[in-house]
Amino acid sequence: MRITGLRTLTTVHQWGRPVGDANGVFPGGVTPVPIVMIDTDEGITGIGFGSHIHAEALFDAIDGEDPRCVTALYDRMLRHAFKAGHAGAIFGTIGALDTALWDIKATLAGEPLWRLLGGRDRAVPAYASGLDIDLDDDQLVAVYKEYAAHGLRAAKLKGGLDVERDRRRLGLVREVLAEAGMARRPGLMLDANECWTRKQAVRHVAELERTLDLIWIEEPVRRWDAEGLAAVGRGIRASVATGENLTGLEQFRPLLAAGAVDIVQAASVWGVTHFLRVAMLAHAHDLPISPIGTTPIGLVHAATSVPNHIAAELQDLTPPVGVSLDMRIEDGAYVLGDAPGLGVRVDETAIAALAPIAKLSSAEISQGPHVRPERAGRQLL
Fold first, then answer.
1. pTM for this one?
2. What stretches of the chain adopt beta strand conformation (E)?
3. Crossing angle for the helix pair 198-208 and 226-235, nearest 10 degrees?
4. Is 3-112+348-367 a domain of CATH 3.30.390.10?
5. DSSP of 256-272, one letter per residue?
6. Are 128 and 151 in contact (CB under 8 A)?
7. If DSSP states are collapsed to H, E and C, what string results for 107-143?
8. Cα(301)–Cα(164) distance, integer angstroms
9. Where do the domains of the chain lie?
């Protein structure tokens, strides 16, 4: 079996509400979803979600190779782009290609990826994550009632800009989950998306902890600030979660060495092999691992096979346009199916019709959550 071709396309996720975090918001509630597709000479096509940047150049590293050699090809792609490939969007493209290769390997074996990787239980515990910072109270309650209807017992809110607003919103979601009978003591997390300095983080969280019990605070300071993350961890009761924006094991090492992280995270856009390696590194430090991302199907499969998975982020209750998944959300968990590979099917015709809306507007490009605000970390109040 040989790799013969690469195709890329972009669909969209239609949230039906504004989505964003402390850094910015997509007010239209439509976000692009890049997809890569790897073709083979035996008619099997692998699908991966992630960046397209330098996809053609990276494809040169795997073109003509046997797609079943997934981990070797992952390292080959890293070597092919070694001066830029361990960080940023290029690492994301490697991750998308890697996920597509795993899809091929499992499809060829006639098994779902979760079983091929050695998983035993197809149900993967999840928590709700609404990308909700721009929602008013009524909208927030409505969104989390929908999550609660699927059995979610824990929720992560976006915040960090106003402590009293964060307190009120966390309390509202706690009531929603409790009233739904999901748990007498629902789990609450807060994601600041790197918007604080060290002292701001401790002051903000310590104030919340006067009345709330938080499981974790996510990215309270900059992702690479091992000393700062450790200082925040010492100053609060909640765990510190981080890692979704770290790429390559070398970026995790200083945080683990400093005792700076309690919940190790890995983003779905970096691929399956990256997740498996980060999970084992975390396991060696007796730390749990948690997948992060929109439609993190590859990492949900992989989570079944690692001993230290704690819970996977669940953002979208419906897949992107033109995408179907052999998976359901039930009793607070992703429940994976039996379709070979990832269980992803793509309607290329439906996606092609989206071309006019699959790109961000200039306003969204300059103001979305992917852009760090000028005064982030410098708010006096």
1. 0.95
2. 3-14, 19-21, 24-26, 30-40, 45-49, 123-129, 154-158, 187-191, 216-218, 239-242, 263-267, 289-292, 312-314, 323-325, 327-330, 333-336, 344-346
3. 30
4. yes
5. HHTT--SEEEEEGGG-H
6. no
7. HHHCCEHHHHCCCCCCEEEEEEECCECCCCHHHHHHH
8. 38
9. 3-112+348-367, 115-341
d(CA 263, CA 300) in angstroms, rounded, equals 17
Same fold, 3-112+348-367 and 115-341: no
**Which residue is associated with the tokens 């970026």?**
251
User: Which tokens sit at 188?
Assistant: 């609450």
Tokens, residue 183: 């748990």
The residue assigned the tokens 């290329």 is 348
**Strand, helix or coil at 288?**
coil
Going by C-alpha positions, the residue among 359, 314, 379 that lies closest to residue 26 is 359
In Å, how far are 209, 217, 336 from 202, measured between CA atoms?
10, 10, 39
Q: How is residue 31 written in tokens? A: 């976000």
**C-alpha dist (Å) from residue 76 to 1, 2, 92, 257, 346:** 18, 16, 15, 28, 27
Question: Which is the CATH superfamily of the domain at 115-341?
Answer: Enolase-like C-terminal domain (3.20.20.120)
For each of the chain's 381 residues, which pLDDT tens digit applies? 999 999 999 999 999 999 999 999 999 999 999 999 999 999 999 999 999 999 999 999 999 999 999 999 999 999 999 877 778 889 999 999 999 999 999 999 999 999 999 999 999 999 999 999 999 999 999 999 999 999 999 999 999 999 999 999 999 999 999 998 765 789 999 999 999 999 999 999 999 999 999 999 999 999 999 999 999 999 999 999 999 999 989 999 999 999 999 999 999 999 999 999 999 999 999 999 999 999 999 999 999 999 999 999 999 999 999 999 999 999 999 999 999 999 999 999 998 887 656 566 655 666 777 787 777 877 767
| Cα separation, 80 vs 58, whole angstroms | 7
Residue owning tokens 């992702």: 223
